[in-house]
Design goal:
Shape: globular
Distance between the termini: 46 Å
Oligomer: single chain
Structural class: alpha/beta
Order of helices and strands: EHEHEHEEHEEHHHEEEHHEHHHH
Strand content: 15-25%
Radius of gyration: 19 Å
CATH topology of the largest domain: Spore Coat Polysaccharide Biosynthesis Protein SpsA, Chain A
């Protein structure tokens, strides 16, 4: 039996899933695809490859729910989480070797763009602090990318050509040890439908006293954000803000979590007019109002 299984969660991924699956099958690993209710030809594209096991959800179970389904369906001691817009460009031996080291729970590979450049700032990050997330939601990190907090968070000073212990590799290309996954209970499905579930898992790995490795010899070409772009604007806006606050309440102290919630409220107010002008629909007001209510409840009541 191949020691590696590959878990892929799809949602309207017909344009990229074929290349992803073809490269994954070359490795000889068992491949499981969980489709979260795609409305395009994603399922038909997967079925063209009989060696791939397909699990169809009647509705969107979220990224965490889909990943948990796929991992449970794989018997292998190592499971690679792979986004449908990531195409393997190397064998997986370096990831297996890294995960086999004592005290290591997971290992991330190197993601490159279509030009071959490493996706610095995405492929490896440090855990966000309350200040990091405050600057994120207020847009400071986007406007001033070189600020010290953002440089540290996005690991701009890391030598991405060298293997290293890291905190948070991208969940788009992340190998896990099955025994550790089972011990920690997989991804937290409350981070619905997407964002921050992989950060939360890596944080729990670190809290358990385990390590995560970065193995740059394992390479995948990554288009980036494919499934997320197919979600409605309202879903993307709510998911990012609400799951950011969920992560803060789970892993920060009361002061840090409240600071993030206050920043979410302020950022929501700052972006209201630009979002209205960009989207031009009433649902923008409803989405902002819902986020503000959640931020206020989290700030005042701690929930």
């Amino acid at each position: 039996m191949n020691p590696v299984g590959i878990a892929i969660v799809t949602f309207n991924s017909q344009r990229c899933i074929g290349a992803c699956l073809d490269a994954a099958l070359v490795t000889g690993a068992e491949v499981v695809v969980v489709d979260n209710g795609s409305a395009d030809r994603t399922v038909a594209e997967v079925r063209l490859r009989p060696a791939v096991r397909l699990i169809e959800n009647g509705c969107n179970a979220g990224f965490a729910g889909g990943v948990n389904q796929a991992v449970r369906a794989l018997p292998s001691p190592f499971v690679l989480l792979l986004n449908p817009d990531a195409v393997l460009r190397s064998p997986l031996d370096d990831l297996v070797a890294a995960c086999s080291e004592p005290g290591v729970a997971a290992a991330g590979g190197r993601l490159i763009d279509e030009s071959g450049a490493t996706e610095i700032g995405f492929v490896v990050r440090r855990f966000p602090t309350p200040l990091t997330l405050v600057l994120e939601v207020l847009g400071v990190n986007r406007l001033w990318k070189g600020n010290p907090v953002n440089r540290r968070y996005r690991c701009y000073g890391l030598d991405h050509s060298q293997s290293a212990d890291v905190e948070q590799p991208a969940g788009a290309f992340l190998m896990l040890r099955r025994d550790i996954w089972d011990r920690l209970g997989g991804l937290d499905e409350r981070f619905f439908p997407f964002w921050f579930e992989d950060v939360d898992f890596c944080r729990r790995v670190a809290d358990a006293g385990l390590r995560i490795r970065y193995a740059p010899g394992a390479v995948a070409c990554h288009a980036g954000g494919h499934s997320v772009r197919h979600a409605p604007w309202e879903v993307r806006k709510s998911s990012w803000n609400l799951n950011l606050m969920r992560y803060s309440r789970k892993h920060f102290g009361p002061l840090g979590a409240r600071a993030v919630c206050a920043a979410v409220a302020a950022g929501c107010l700052l972006r209201l007019v630009p979002d209205l002008l960009a989207q031009r629909r009433l649902s923008v007001l409803q989405t902002h109002a819902a986020i503000l209510r959640q931020a206020a409840a989290a700030f005042l009541l701690g929930r």
